[in-house]
Amino acid sequence: MVKEKESIAVIGAGSWGTALALVIADNQHEVRLWGHNQNQINEINQNHTNEKYLPGIELPLGIKGFSSIKEALAGIEIIILAVPTKAYREVLGQIEEAHDKPLTIVHVSKGIEPDSLLRISEMIEEVSSSEWLKDIVVLSGPSHAEEVSLRHPTTVAVSSKNMKAAERVQDIFINNNFRVYTNPDLIGVEIGGALKNIIALAAGITDGLGYGDNAKAALMTRGLAEISRLGVAMGANPLTFSGLAGIGDLIVTCTSVHSRNWRAGNMLGKGQKLEEVLENMGMVVEGVRTTKAAYQLAQKYEVNMPITEALYDVLFNGEEVKKAVDLLMNRSKTNEMEELFNILDSRQQD
Ligand SMILES: NC(=O)C1=CN([C@@H]2O[C@H](COP(=O)(O)OP(=O)(O)OC[C@H]3O[C@@H](n4cnc5c(N)ncnc54)[C@H](OP(=O)(O)O)[C@@H]3O)[C@@H](O)[C@H]2O)C=CC1
Ligand SMILES: O=C(CO)COP(=O)(O)O
């Protein structure tokens, strides 16, 4: 099938923005990769590399780096937004100033804003005027930038309130190495992608403590149970959590050495302090802020999230990691599925 060539701006030249720029350049689209670091943009244009974020990867010549957001957005109708969640409000402000056409925003970030408790698509809606914002699409799933940039087989899901926009994004990205599925459950796709980072931090901790495979399987399974409970309470379809944005992303993030969240957890489990871990990472560890947001969401929706609560105590209240695991294991006995069934029942009654 011959694809229509589009001009696309990728906002954020970190590991994920650069890897996705490579995918769409492979699909012969015109790709403008915007970053706020002039030296890095010079490197992308002169050497066709981004060594800090994707060491050893030769970028396609079709990727052009931009440090002026106005130039990057000139005549553009579709942007891929690939900055950390905490940078969204600032970067959206710059986009609002710089754009010259109504935009479809494809966000590929995995987080929830603490305090406002907004999902990323909700934050984009809140900040952006309907005069220039056409559609919001989320792209999420098990997809480490390091492997995507090596063109290893990868699968992701896209979702939107407007599924025609999601299908357009599916067409832009899909190729022999990068398979894109649509999923109509916007809430579930965003919640699954954001909350798996909490469980990956916890899995890294138990690996760092040397607890092995049983503990990790327990965390992943019971982690998925609490993600599903919160997600369903917020309106997600429970089946999404057995899909790419749910269990798929949970598996890859809890088991891969590429995961910054797992690596951060691993260092915490080995006794390092949070500040030291974040300083040494040099890349975003979304799960830390998302733990705070999910802790607040659990209170708001009155959902039991024991792993999130235990991690919250480790990250923000100085709880010792080993003690947090002991407390988790010594809670009063419970039923594996009852709470989720109750949430589903109460939703049906509403
Ligand atoms: N890496 C991955 O494999 C995947 C990541 N994601 C998600 O993508 C999002 C981005 O992550 P990722 O690319 O990995 O993160 P990185 O830490 O690799 O890169 C973040 C990029 O955003 C830039 N940035 C940060 N703050 C601002 C700002 N205020 N204005 C402009 N640019 C800014 C950074 O610039 P600087 O270099 O100056 O710090 C850097 O270029 C996250 O939500 C992550 O969860 C999703 C799937 C896979
Ligand atoms: O979301 C990711 C893979 O799907 C990336 O996870 P990390 O941010 O933990 O590296």
Please, could you describe this protein's structure?
This protein starts with 6 loop residues before the first strand and ends with a helix. It is globular, with a radius of gyration of 20 Å. Strand 5 (103-107), helix 5 (120-127) and strand 6 form a beta-alpha-beta unit. Strands 3-2-1-4-5-6-7-8 form an eight-stranded mixed sheet, sandwiched between helices. Helix 9 (212-233) packs parallel to helix 16 (338-349) and helix 11 runs antiparallel to helix 12 (274-281). The mean pLDDT is 97. The protein contains 16 helices and eight strands. Helices cover 53% and strands 12% of the residues. It has helices spanning 15-26, 38-47, 69-73, 88-98, 120-127, 145-148, 163-173, 186-208, 212-233, 244-255, 260-269, 274-281, 286-301, 306-316, 321-329, 338-349; strands spanning 7-11, 30-34, 63-66, 78-81, 103-107, 133-140, 154-160, 178-182. It is an alpha/beta fold and 350 residues long. The protein binds NADPH dihydro-nicotinamide-adenine-dinucleotide phosphate and 1,3-dihydroxyacetonephosphate. The site of 1,3-dihydroxyacetonephosphate has 14 residues, from helix 8, helix 10 and helix 11. InterPro entries: 6-PGluconate_DH-like_C_sf, 6PGD_dom2, G3P_DH_NAD-dep, G3P_DH_NAD-dep_C, G3P_DH_NAD-dep_N, NAD(P)-bd_dom_sf. NADPH binds at residues 15-16, 36, 53, 110, 145, 260, 284, 286. It is found in: Cytoplasm.
By DSSP (H or I, 4+ residues per run), the number of helices equals 16
Question: Which residue ranges are poorly predicted, with pLDDT under 50 across at least 5 consecutive positions?
Answer: none
| Strand-pairing-aware structural class | alpha/beta
- H/E series, N to C? EHEHEHEHEHEHEHEHHHHHHHHH
- The share of residues in helices is 40-55%
Oligomer: single chain
Bound molecules: NADPH dihydro-nicotinamide-adenine-dinucleotide phosphate, 1,3-dihydroxyacetonephosphate
Distance between the termini: 45 Å
Which of globular, elongated, flat, extended, rod-shaped describes the shape?
globular
Using only CA atoms, what is the Rg?
Answer: 20 Å
Strand composition percent: 5-15%
Total number of β-strand segments?
Answer: 8
Mean pLDDT: 97
| Strand numbers in spatial order across the main sheet | 3-2-1-4-5-6-7-8
Main sheet: strands, sense, barrel: 8 strands, mixed
EC number: 1.1.1.94
Subcellular location: Cytoplasm
Family: Belongs to the NAD-dependent glycerol-3-phosphate dehydrogenase family.
Pfam families: NAD_Gly3P_dh_C, NAD_Gly3P_dh_N
